[in-house]
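Notes for week 9. Today we move from apo structures to complexes. The key idea is that a small molecule is not decoration. When we ask for a structure prediction with zinc ion present, the ligand SMILES becomes part of the input, just like the chain. The input block below holds both the sequence and the ligand string. Read it once before you look at the output, and try to guess where the molecule might sit.
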Amino acid sequence: METECAKKWRLTHKGERQRYKQRWYQEHREQQLAHQRKWYHTHKQQAREHNKKYRLEHKEHVKEYRKMINAKVKREVLGHYSSDRMSCACCGEGHIEFLSIDHINNDGAQQRKAFVGARSIYWWLKAREFPNGYRVLCYNCNLSLGHHGYCPHQIKEEKSNE
Ligand SMILES: [Zn+2]
Ligand SMILES: [Zn+2]
């Protein structure tokens, strides 16, 4: 049982201890990583089995985590390509569930080839540090552009401008 006095000391020195830990970690980072790598190397089989077992036992957890991290990357990429507006460049649709990335100089076949092996276009773009030439469109506008070469939203706009 922690005494009142010890508790007080712990609380008042909390920041100090954290800073110390952080500094220690920074100073020994390389060492730690090398150690981890070495361990992994000599225990490859064990580590692999452990990971596999963990994944099986925590299936739901792992799935949730993947979903969460995928959504995070999606938000990050959509944010970047919509200047943080998070909306369709054509119609302004703002529900993230409807949004996707459009290759502006549309070459779908080439694009799909490039993404083979990537987890998704979002991970692919992030890994390449957000190359130019992409924008955010909702599925409706994206599909219409793909199928018809135009989006009805644009035509309506042109008509109303006449
Ligand atoms: Zn749209
Ligand atoms: Zn549209």
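The pocket of zinc ion (ligand 2) is lined by residues 90-91, 141, 151, 153 (CB under 6 Å).
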